[in-house]
Batch of 3 targets.
Target 1
Amino acid sequence: MSAKRDISVLVQRTLRTVRNFLLSPKSREFLIFLFFLVVAFFFWMLQKLNDTYEMELAIPVRVENVPDNVVMTMPPPASVRVQVKDRGTVLINYMLGRSFYPLTLDFGELENESGRVRVESSSFQKMVTSQLMNTTQVGAIRPYAFDIVYTRGKAKKVPVVVQSKVTTEKQYYISEMHVSPDSILVYAPEEILDTLTAVYTKSFACTQVDDTIRRHETLAPVFGAKFVPEGVDVEICTDMYTEKKLEIPIHPVNFPADKMLKTFPSKVSLTFQVGLAHFKSVTENDFLITVTYDELLKCNSDKYRVKLKSFPNNVSYIRIDPPEVDFIIEQVNTFETP
């Protein structure tokens, strides 16, 4: 309570000091001086903004109506730089509040038999000036000219490979990964298509994942190739591990008709981890433990170390109990029928 009282007293003293200062003659003189200083700065700024300045604007460039089979090996620049001159108030509007439409070039009007088009700044200067104020003077446009080089490629359908590094929370694992579409069309010259067996997404990483992830991933570019579509949807599904236990029999294989195998015990316990989604579907029939007659003949003891011959892909951390079993090969009496 004393700490709160001290803070309250300190605040009251501070407010009293400020109030006394504001009501004093000296503070009035200071506030009047500050007011005229702000007004003078405002008029100075207006005067300076009415002066003429130069600046450079960036206007994006876009090519439309490009056929799917056209691959631009040398695309146009992302934007052109335009030198402009005008009053400061107009230039501030360009900097802060004005967005520019892309300079749109129609591919149908540009294409020719050579596969190389040269575009000069004079061809789109009218599109630049139409987006500027009437008072704005347009100077140099850089680059003055640029080339667009393209080729008409053949198409090939190739699979998509996801490049990812995904780590899950404890007791979780990645159960499934879906890519849509799982393959795309690639347009490129024949020499590129011949060496292309797959396309890859740009690498990404996710950590401590415990739920389904859905992402849209762009594809890593290949020079001289065009992808349709340019990206894929990736869905990474997770599941939680749980433990399950089953009793699995030991099956003899390649035993002679007059020989019979007995193991002690006749079944072993398998304890393993499996996802909750597959817990019920994994049964004894999914596991196989076999022992061949030749294996036992080569065995130097009366114990056999159990080996799991097959098991489902969706189980892990399998433990066998007991790891070894006792065995006896018995002679079976056979009687011939007269």
Note: Residues 2-49 form one domain.
Target 2
Amino acid sequence: MLTFYTNPMSRGRIARFMLEEIGAPYETVFVNFGEEMNHPDYRAINPMAKVPALVHDGHVVTEVAAICTYLAMVFPEKGLMAEDKAAFFRWMFFGAGPLEQAVVNNSFGWVPKTPQESGRTGYGSLERVSRTLTEHLERHYYLADNRFTAADVYVGSQVGWGLRFGTIPANDTLNAYWERIAARPALAAANAKDDAAMPPKA
């Protein structure tokens, strides 16, 4: 049994994309920000008081990269775990570390000002992160195995979000990569479910 705790205005959208790719039945529990997310009942599931969280046969998985990786591993028949594990884990952790941190820091206006600060960030700069990802995708259609895997669910979703809101520098390579991800039927199904759960506009 899969129980998915999420909010349609959260990173849970990426985890739902992965769930739709897997195609196994799952229950969705929407959790509101604020008091409900901080309630002891939910904090017993995720002490961080945030979404998403996934409960599978009594086991709790949090953090989107971990959820995507876990689902790829426990549903191997879906083919979303790469044979090239080195590439898979490299790019999954690249998305969870350098990519997300560079984008978030830059969006808050924090940019390393010296080589020493750049070295301490662990990612250098947003430009370096974007260049590294772009150069890989210039040589590979997808991140691992040259086919779609859970790494593309996770990193591809971040690329799409970044291109949409201008938090990742756009270029032809990243635009083309996102077009491949955006064409996935599972993403359309996931977005339809989350869009339907969005609060009405004031």
Note: The radius of gyration is 17 Å.
Target 3
Amino acid sequence: MDLDRARAVAVEAAEAAGDLLLQGTRGRVGTRPKGHAGDVVTDLDLASEKLIVERILTAYPTHAVVAEESGLLGASGGQWTWLVDPLDGTNNVAIGLPAYVVGLALCQAGLPVLGVVHDPVTAQTWSAIRGRGARGRGGVRLAPPYRDSRHGPLLAWTQGYGVARDDGAVLALKSALELGARRVLQLWAPLLSWVMLARGDIDAVVGYRAEAVDLPAGALIAQEAGLEIRALDGGPFEERIDGTPEDRSFVAAHPAGLDAVLRLVRSSGI
């Protein structure tokens, strides 16, 4: 498998979808409910997904694709699976907030080996190949420095759509983070949080039962930029796509600042 070619295909697809989204958000965006937890979907999600899936399956007709809106497409049962988040930040777009990205990941036997995130608003693309580092604008390698803050870390929070509002663990965890962190961002666009971490804009990302479709691309980019990811109890974390929602709870931070964030998590008592 030529991962450089796969990255080129993914980047071109993500950027073409980004152009579509950027044009579409300049007009009225129609939304409709999705599920029973207050989530929404738009025609832009579907159009972006169609574009990306067609490009991937044209280039790799024997691969499987798991797309956020359409589910499993292509040939199942093989070792190669693409994950497609055609519009990460739909709820932001619905209220006119220009904070959204496009994300793709390629997994081999359930483990991500390629991740791509594109921001249509800033026209920036980030990508990573396992073991070969992460790239930002102009192909510059991402390697954010550690910055120690006496006011606590600046972190982002993400949780899965299926997590109940009154989930006791979430309430305890978010309370502990709010008390100990300098600021807790809730961006409604997890992949945007991941690239902010990989760039060094924020200090950590804490996730609780994160969605499977957008976790692998962002986590791989962060890891390849030198960040570390652990389970909430400080144990090992693996961003596989075949795990359960419970397996997708994590803390991600610079290795030098990871223990401080884990102490905040432990203070929640969960």
Note: DSSP finds seven helices and 14 strands in the chain.
